[in-house]
Amino acid sequence: MELHERIASALPATVTCPCCGKSAPAGTLKCQGCSYDYYPTPPDDEHRYAVILREGSYDSDFLPKMALFSGWEPEQCRQANAMMQTYGEAHREFVLLRRSLSRSAAMHIAANLSRHCGVKIVSDDPLPGYTDTFADTEQLELAPEALPCPAPAKSEKEQHSGIGFWGIVGAVLLAIVIASFL
């Protein structure tokens, strides 16, 4: 067996998205579930991050996205969102969505949820002298922001908005036709 054949046989046949958990064939560029780029630029560092949600959302797109990125059942998402929206004894100011994420995965999740609610990315690295991550989610909420929250990701509708190239060509041709009659 040649070297390139041995290397190819050692590589996994599939990749799993660190954001939504969907599997795809190795070599896939983007996740079909959440559009995560499997080959982020710049490359990830060795640190781990946690994504914390603040403020619930009344947007109808929020709960499905929360379920996609958390792996929770829809009812769990609804309850967590309600806790962030309800004031009084049941009120909770934050919800820990995911832990132990790479930099690119934390940024991708935050960008997709920040249009709906407040998002905070904190370090989830082990404390000095410990091999495990923070034991208490309250400690994570109190931790300073490790990464700035990225600009909200554009929705499918926003990505395809505008008249585009052929719209401009059509407008120019229409202007020429109109000008020829004047």
Notable features of this structure?
about 180 residues; extended; four-stranded antiparallel β-sheet; 7 helices; Ribosomal Protein L30, Chain: A; two-stranded antiparallel sheet; 2 domains
What number of structural domains do the residues give? Answer: 2
* Low-confidence runs: none
Q: Give the CATH topology of the largest domain.
A: Ribosomal Protein L30, Chain: A
Number of β-strand runs: 6
Strand content: 15-25%
- DSSP helix fraction: 25-40%
Class per helix and strand makeup: alpha+beta
What's the CATH architecture of the largest domain?
A: 2-Layer Sandwich
| Run of helices and strands | HEEEHHEHEHEHH
Mean pLDDT: 81
**Sequence of strands across the biggest β-sheet:** 4-3-5-6
Radius of gyration: 22 Å
CATH class of the largest domain: Alpha Beta
Distance between the termini: 76 Å
Q: Sheet with the most strands?
A: 4 strands, antiparallel
What would you call the shape? extended
Number of helices: 7
Concise description?
The chain has seven helices and six strands, in the order αβββααβαβαβαα.
Question: Topology, please?
Answer:
Elements: H1 3-10, E1 14-16, E2 23-25, E3 49-54, H2 62-70, H3 74-85, E4 94-101, H4 103-113, E5 118-123, H5 137-142, E6 145-147, H6 156-159, H7 164-181
Molecular structure report:
With 182 residues, the protein is α+β, with helices and mostly antiparallel strands. It folds into 2 domains: 1-39, no CATH class; 44-155, Ribosomal Protein L30, Chain: A (2-Layer Sandwich). 37% of the residues lie in helices and 16% in strands. The chain has helices at residues 3-10, 62-70, 74-85, 103-113, 137-142, 156-159, 164-181; strands spanning 14-16, 23-25, 49-54, 94-101, 118-123, 145-147. A 4-stranded antiparallel beta sheet has the order 4-3-5-6. It has a two-stranded antiparallel ribbon with strand order 1-2. β1 and β2 form a beta hairpin. α2 (62-70) packs across α3. The chain is extended and about 80 Å long.
